[in-house]
Amino acid sequence: MFLLSRLPERHSQILVRQPQARLRASQARTRFNSARIATLAPLNPEEKQFGSLPIDAGKGPPSKRNSEGNSGYETMPKQSQVEPVADEIIPMNYTNSSLTTSRSGADVSKLLYDAGPPLPPSDSPNFQKILDQKLSICNFICNFYNPDVDVEAKKVKSSILEDIVNCLSATGMITNVDEQDLAKLVKMCQNNIVRRLPILDARTIFSNDIPPIEEPAWPHLNYVYQILRRIFQNFGYLNVFNNDFVISLLPILQSPDSNERSALGGFITTYMKGKPACNTVLLPHLKRNLEEHCVNHSPPFIVGPILNLYLQIFQTGTMSNILLADAFQQTLRVLSDYHLSHFERQLKNLVEFFTDESMSFAAMFVKTLILKWPKSCAEKEASFIRMMTETIPKMSSRELSPLIHRIFSIYAECSCSHATKVAEAALQIWANLQMEPIIQEHGRKIVPLMYGPVSLALKEHWSKPVRESAATALRMMSKISPRAVQDLNTANSSNSGNESRFAPTAHDDLKKWANIARTAARRDHEVNLGKKLADITMLYNGQQKQFMQTHSGGSQRAMSMRQQNFYGARF
């Protein structure tokens, strides 16, 4: 999502996106204004000459447009005269042009009357009539995606929902309400919760770190979830609380608003605890929703709540081993998700449960991590390292021994990564008490693999915390295998004139860029793979030539071997 600067007379560091040609100016302004937050004011309120730029950047402020409808801005300060200021990370609303259409005022006027008096006691003769009137308004779904529509209806409905919450919270009040009226309240809640979710622009969630997104209707939904939770806590036996009711709520777990996902996930968890028999009914629906996400690459919001519900179901201990294995296999598929960091905590909790159940699950998980190891996303690579470090101690020695070389080769490569998160996560294994027995048992294989990269990280890494972690790792190596460290140190000293790993990194880095180009070509057929690989090769050769001219004492044989390995990759 391209945010706009809120600072007067200052340009944003983020691009101003031109609206699509088919989007009318009025619709663009409506979508922009609906995403505004009232508390966002310029940092310098005394300067109000320009204010924030409108979303339809092709048109200037009304005061600056000429009578002929000139579409350009008036003269503004040049970029060189002002200091670019980046926008802060703020919650943002999301809109959909199909949901911003205005409705006829005649339909709204029929329901738009005073909220009336508060709900009387349940034994009052007017209670039934007043409750039905209030429910008729609460069942009216206001259009929060257009701030100019249903303005009065939103205020009246908020007042009524708050009145109902206060009524149900009063001591002894809820126990006197008739079950038929409670069923009407539950149906009202379902009517407000089950809705069509807007489709997010792909640019909003292109990053692996998704910004917080607010549901515009949350002021009403917050009351709705409170009503639903209070009724279920006291009247969970009502016929309206059945499996079909809960199944109808599952798609709303895809809501981008974390508040709504938390409220809905908490209610479903409470329902499952109160009615354990529903677990076998809900599990296939949860699996289908997760499968649809993996196949369609939909937004990642639904994954975390489903993994939490998986954990709740499996912790009951009523599932067979076949169902457990099948669910675990499906869970492993989400490791390929680009937005893994969005649900990493829920995934780690579920994996911890499975790996505690059986060593075979631990081995399966580590092997899957190796096969799906990310190459271009440092955030995801750091997550993989942390999960691998936590799972390896749970593997049996028989299954771990064949994987030692592959696992610690990954650790060695990541130890000298330029990404601080990756390097620190890889070096933390030397301070991990659970990893210490494994390192001591396989020290003869591990120390030679990791000594070189860790030494280079200690000498040349740009991050001070990484260098400190590397020093700790070398001290641990000296304690575990002092003879091997002494031999490696001697060999390393004799080759001190050789090229540094951090100086000529063009080969490794550009080889990764070649992998990225192949991936892009597989996903987008318009990408010219041959041209991209040729550009990468030319850039690599140019950097290698420059490096060899600068370091004339370098090894020509090492360079030729690197070129051979690079060209040996199948384009």
TrEMBL record:
InterPro entries assigned: ARM-like, ARM-type_fold, PP2A_B56
Annotated segments matching region Disordered: 48-80
Molecular function GO labels: protein phosphatase regulator activity
Biological process annotations from GO: signal transduction
One GO CC term on file: protein phosphatase type 2A complex
Start-end of Polar residues biased regions: 68-80
Protein name in the entry: Phosphoprotein phosphatase
Organism in which the protein naturally occurs: Tritrichomonas foetus
